[in-house]
């Protein structure tokens, strides 16, 4: 099982927002532009970063259901969204937000998506979305999800799916070995079966096309610079932990690797949009 702290999600939110692919985002915006309202399901919503970045692309009235298995993250999401909005109020279980011209009703749902996804994608859902989530899932999960989404004729938008590309500056020969270890670690079971990891975005595109949707993909890499120092350092630590866990490299070379100061990093992601043809 894997854990995501609110601090880690906070640290990456600005880089994620910068990285989103604008062509893929425009395709989503254009597809829903004639509607007055939209009902959105956000898978693996964490602290609500996807809502904060996507709401501006969507019609004026929005209802979001944020699903995550981690109740603590959903509690943080409630607080962060209330602060992010221009104004907020509570209506029973729902949080009502106003942000610019948008009126956003937010529902929070704690569920294990490895078991409950199909029940959540009900016919009322018009957009199924996720950010930084699908690399954790498996090829079979993606295959079933695509079928379920297509059956409801919902639009689909997945951002920031890790795609395996990475480059550190300055480069060190050991980067390639660490990357290989990290990749293997990424493909371990995260609760959905063997993880799709860097192949997740291409599985998404394939499965939506096989089921008759049009699908568009675009790169959304993190382009990290000196000003992202804290995120770079946290990433290096995370890669070192993953490589140690994999056990294929000697401890000393990992310790040496993690100490190399880096001034920049490129970490590849892919955004995917899919909709009925
Ligand atoms: C990398 S975080 C991304 C969070 C958020 N979408 C964002 O962009 O900041 C992945 C999220 O998926 C959630 N998650 C992982 N496995 C899950 C599962 N089986 N069911 C529900 N949520 C899950 C985690 O709790 C975490 O919040």
Structure overview:
With 277 residues, this protein is α/β, with parallel strands linked by helices. It contains 10 helices and 10 strands. The chain has helices spanning 6-19, 22-32, 49-54, 71-84, 113-120, 139-152, 174-186, 200-210, 229-246, 251-259; strands at residues 37-43, 61-68, 87-91, 94-99, 102-110, 127-131, 155-169, 213-219, 222-224, 264-276. Strands 1, 2, 3, 4, 5, 6, 7, 8, 9 and 10 form a 10-stranded mixed sheet that branches. Strand 6 (127-131), helix 6 (139-152) and strand 7 form a beta-alpha-beta unit. Helix 7 (174-186) packs across helix 9. S-adenosylmethionine binds next to helix 3 and helix 5.
CATH architecture: 3-Layer(aba) Sandwich
What's the number of domains?
Answer: 1
Instruction: Say which CATH homologous superfamily is assigned.
Output: Vaccinia Virus protein VP39
Shape: globular
Low-confidence blocks of residues: none
The CATH class, by name, is Alpha Beta
Task: Tell me what portion of residues adopts beta-strand conformation.
Answer: 25-35%
CATH topology: Rossmann fold
Order of helices and strands: HHEHEHEEEHEHEHHEEHHE
Distance between the termini: 37 Å
State the helix count: 10
Helix/sheet category: alpha/beta
Radius of gyration of CA atoms, rounded to a whole number? 19 Å
Main beta-sheet annotation: 10 strands, mixed
Could you say which small molecules are bound to this protein?
S-adenosylmethionine
- The pLDDT mean sits at 96
